[in-house]
Specification:
single chain, about 160 residues, mainly beta, 1 helix, 6 strands, elongated
Length: about 160
């Protein structure tokens, strides 16, 4: 039987985990933050540190050639974003660049993972691979809290 709680690694869970990590590595999220200055978020990155599966699997569809399942997962990742800070120049009517900072935060996200197994019903669970892996939701917004510029000291 397929036992998630046993903590054993197997090819099926490994292939699902790899697909989840790949999807999160490719995600582009909206960075939210608070600051006393005007700022713009620039490049952002997501680095998955852990994927944990709930011990229950829901069967969605079964046919002669395939079976589709759903499993819930908690994804822990480090979100990182570069912020540029500006101040409004009322004389030139333009934003003047002041400084920048890179902020990071650890986030836990829960998602459902839908996957399909094709023609592998006679094989042992340890040798199965998940195909057509889809996530029902991925991160859209990450709140970095209160941020402020990181000023470099002037060199003499």
């Amino acid at each position: 039987m397929f036992d998630i709680e046993a903590g054993k690694t197997n090819a099926l869970l490994d292939s699902i985990k790899s697909a989840v990590i790949s999807r999160y590595d490719d995600v582009s999220f909206m960075a939210e933050a608070d600051s006393y200055l005007s700022f713009e978020p620039e490049a952002n990155y997501c680095h998955v540190s852990d994927v944990e599966f709930e011990p229950f699997i829901n069967v969605i569809d079964v046919s002669q050639d395939y079976a589709t399942f759903e499993i819930k997962a908690t994804v822990t990742y480090d979100a990182e974003c570069d912020f540029n800070f500006y101040h409004y120049d009322s004389i030139d009517k333009d934003n003047v660049y002041l400084a920048a900072t890179t902020e990071s935060t650890e986030v836990n996200d829960t998602t459902s993972v839908i996957f399909t197994i094709f023609n592998d019903f006679e094989r042992d669970y340890d040798n199965m691979d998940a195909e057509d892996v889809e996530l029902t939701s991925v991160i859209k917004y990450v709140d970095f809290g209160s941020i402020e510029p990181h000023y470099e000291p002037e060199q003499d």
